[in-house]
Structures
1.
Amino acid sequence: MLIRIPEVLTADELTQARQILAEAAWKDGKSTAGTQALQAKNNEQLSQDSPESERLRALVLKALERHPLFFSAALPKKIYPPLFNRYGGDTNFYGNHVDGAVMQARQTGQRIRSDVSCTLFLAEPEDYDGGDLAIEDTYGTQRVKLAAGDMVLYPSTSIHRVEPVTRGHRVACFFWVESMVRSDEQRRMLFDLDMNLLRLREAYGESSYLVNLTGTYHNLLRMWADT
Ligand code: NI
C-alpha cells in the first residue's frame, strides 16, 4: 500500500532544510549501496557523518514525531536515521532494485528490518523534470512525485526505481521503518480502521459504538504489535 503523508515539513522547516543543504557536500551514492544496488544506483548522497546530515536528521525526526498520520500508517518501532540524496546532471537515476531487508544504522550500529520505505520530497516538482519514484505494485507501476515537504510510504518489499532527472535537481530524504506490525496487510487494515474511526468521530461525534470500535482497533493492534 502506498500512503501519502502531506506536509510533513512546514514551510519554515523546508526553508531551514534548504539552507542546510546549500552548505552540504554531496558524494557518490554508490558508497552505501549493496552489491545488487551498486549496478543500478547512480546518484549522490550526503555523507552521514557530516554536521549538515546531523542537523537535517534531527529536523526530520522531530517533524515525524508530531505527525499522527505517519504514526498511524507506519506504526514505527524503529526508524533508520534519515539519509539524503540528490539526482541531477550525470548522476541522475536509480534503476530497479529492492531495498535490503536488514539495515544497520551507521551511527548506532542498530539493526533495523525494513518494513516500510519512506521518501520525503525536498525539491518542488516544478524545479526538475523526470525523477519520478516508480513503484511496482500488484496493480501496475505507481509513479510518485510530490510537493516539497510531502512524503510517500511504500512497502519495502516492492521493486522500485527513480527515473532519470533530465532537468534541475531532485533532492529528497529517505529512510526505513521497522514497524510494530510486520505485515503490510495487517498494517493496512489498522490504518483504514483508524482513519475511518477518525472520520466517523468528526462527522457524528463520540458514541458508544465508536468507543467499541476503537476498542476493536486497539485489540487488533495488541494482537499484532510487537514492541
Ligand atoms: Ni530503494
2.
Amino acid sequence: MSLRPTLETRRAQPTLEGAGVKLHRAFGFQDPSELDPFLLFDDFRNERPEDFEKGFPWHPHRGIETITYVLSGTVDHADSLGNTGSLGAGDVQWMTAGRGILHQEMPHGNQRGQMHGFQLWGNLPSAQKMTAPRYQDVTAADIPEVTDDDGTTVRVITGEFWGKKGPVDGIAADPQYLDVTMPAGVKKTFHIDTYRRAFAYVFDGSAAFVDAAAPTGVLLEKEVAGQEVNIRDLSGDRTLVRFGSGDEITVQAGEQGVRFLLISGAPINEPVAWHGPIVMNTQAELQQAMRDLRNGTFIQPAH
Ligand code: CO
C-alpha cells in the first residue's frame, strides 16, 4: 500500500460561461495533461436565478464526454439527435459527444431559486473521438449508495466501489466517479488503483487529506498523538485536491463532516488540440471540425 501525496490544493475560480452563467471552475483550459483523462471541471452553485438562467444555449461538442451531475434545481436539455429531457436532483447525464452533437443545457432553480450541480469533461482517445454520439441518462434512484459502519456514504456513479457498480458503462477512460459524504471526525482510507489519475473536489464541510510526503507510518502515528503533521486542511469548500501516484488516499473529516467528489481515470497520454467545446488530437482535426460546422456536416443526419 502506498499513500498518494496531495500534489496541490486549490480553490475553484469564478468564471463566466455559456450565455452568462456565473460558475466556479476547478480546472480547465490550462495544462490538459495535469488531470488526463479529465479536461475540465465546473461547479454550478448559485443562489440567484439571474446568475444562471441564461444557461448554455445551442453549442457543439466533439471528441469528448461531458458529465453533468445535478444536486439541486434542474437542467433541461435538448440535442441534435432529437433527445430532450430534464435532469433533477441526484440525476446524472453522461454524454459521449463522439463525432459531434449540438445541444443546449438550461438550468433552473429549485423552489428557493437555487441551483447546484457539476460538469466534468472527459477526453476521448483518438480511436473514439469520431465514434457515434451516445447519451446515458441516469436517474437518482438508479445510482447505488453504500453506507459503511462509521456513517460514510458513497454514491457510485461509475466504476466499482465497495462491491457496488455504477450504472454508467462503456467509457474509454475507465472512470470512477464517487460522491462521498463523511460524518464529523471520521477518518477513512480509499483505495484508488495505481494506474489511475485522481482528484477530489470538496464542496461541503472540510477535511484534511493526509499527505504521503513523509513516511506513512510516522505520519499516522504523529497524527494520533495530536501533533502537527503534514496534512492539508481544506476548511471551506470548492476546493480541488490533486493526488500523485500511489494506491490509496486517507481523508480525515472536519468538525462539520465533509462531502466531496472522488474522481479517477486512466490517462490517455495523447496530444490535445483544444478549441472551446471541441477537443481533438491535432490542429488539422480542429480545422476540420470548424469546416464541418460551417458546412452543416458536423453532425450525422438522424436515422
Ligand atoms: Co455542452
3.
Amino acid sequence: MVTYIDAATAPLKNTGAIRLYGADDFEGMRRACQLTARCLDALVPMVKPGVTTAAIDNFVFEFGADHGAIPATLNYRGYKYSVCTSINHVVCHGMPDDKPLRDGDIVNIDVTFLLDGWHGDSSRMYPVGNIKRAAERLMEVTHECLMRGIAAVRPGARTGAIGEAIQTYAEAERCSVVRDFCGHGVGRLFHDSPNILHYGKANEGPELREGMIFTIEPMINLGKPHVKVLSDGWTAVTRDRSLTAQYEHTVGVTATGCEIFTLSPAGLDRPGLG
Ligand code: MF3
Ligand code: CO
Ligand code: CO
C-alpha cells in the first residue's frame, strides 16, 4: 500500500511513504537545482580532449564551495567524489580519475548539490571533441526519452506512465532501457521514495500527486540492456560494452503537470546537440 506524508512533519528517513512538499519547499528546490544547472552549464566549455575527470571533480567541488553548497555524493555510502563521470560504455557511477578525456568520447556528468538542506540532482551528456554519428543519435534519443517521461507527469497519472513513455520511444528507436537503476524521490533526502522506473506500463506504480518531487534519469543503451558493476563496487558498465547515455532532471509535480527545477538557465540542456 502506498502512503503519502506531509514533508513538513515526516521523519528525515526513507520510510517508503511518499513526501508531499509545499510552496516554500519548491522554492528551496528551485535554488538548489538551479545551482546544479549552473554548474553543469559552466562545465560545457571545460569538457574537451585532454581534460581529466579528476579536474572536473575538483571544479564541481569548488563551484559548490563558492556558492555554499556541498556535493551530496561526497562520502555518500563510501563514494569519494563530488561528481559521477561516466564515459562511453559506463552506464553510471563512473569515478573521476587522472585519465584525460579523448576525442570522440561521450561523458555523462552527474551533479547533486546540497544547498540549505535541499538536493538538486541533474546530469547531462557532453561530447568530447568530434563524436561519431551513432553517439550523437544515442544522446538525442536519450534526451528525448527524458523529455517524454517528463511530459507524462501530472497529478492522477501513475509513475508507470513515465516508464511507458520512455520505454516505448527508446525501443522504437532500436535502443534498450537499463533496468538496474531508476529515478527516485529527492528533496530533503538524496534518495527517497518513490522509485521512478524508466520502463513499464502506465497503470503501474503509485499515483502522482501535487507536491511530489523526484528525478527522472533514463539510461539508454545502443545494445542490450544488461549492466554489470565492476570490482570497484561502483562503476556500472554495459555487459556487451555497447555505448550508453543518460540525462537527468529533478521535477516537482504541480496542479497541472510539473516544473523542471534543473532546466539550464542558459539553454544548455543538451550540450553539443544544439
Ligand atoms: N546522482 C546519482 C543519481 O542520480 C547518484 C550518485 S550516488 C554516488 O541518483 F554515490 F554514486 F555518487
Ligand atoms: Co538521481
Ligand atoms: Co544524479
